[in-house]
Amino acid sequence: MNLLAPRTDEQLNNYLSYKLADSMGLLSPRTELTRVFINGEDQGVFLCRAD
Q1: Residue 51, pLDDT above cutoff 80
Q2: In this predicted model, what pLDDT tens digit does every residue of 8-46 receive, in sequence order?
Q3: 51 within 8 A of 5, measured Cβ to Cβ
Q4: 4 half-sphere exposure, CB direction, 13 A CA radius
Q5: CB 49 within 8 A of CB 2
Q6: Pick from 38, 40, 15: which is nearest to 28 by CA?
Q7: Beta strands of 1-51 (E only): which ranges?
């Protein structure tokens, strides 16, 4: 599992591309947008990708 901090439009486009490929029945990594907290402090939204 990889946690990636999407900071650019291109990185968010990757997430959407993975979801689109999955909806079409194509092979793609499992991805979810996840809000991360460390010691109760919000670190923001990360892309969780299982390769």
Answers
A1: no
A2: 888 889 899 999 999 999 999 999 999 999 999 999 999
A3: no
A4: 17
A5: yes
A6: 15
A7: 2-4, 30-38, 41-50
Task: Report the chain's terminal Cα–Cα distance, integer Å.
Answer: 7
Interatomic CA distance for residues 12 and 43, integer angstroms: 17
Listed in sequence order, the residues at least 6 apart from 30 whose beta carbon sits closer than 8 Å to its beta carbon are 22, 49, 50
Q: Where are the domains of the chain?
A: 2-50
Name the residue among 27, 32, 23 with its Cα closest to residue 1.
Answer: 32
What single-letter amino acid sits at 33?
L
Structure tokens at 12: 């968010």
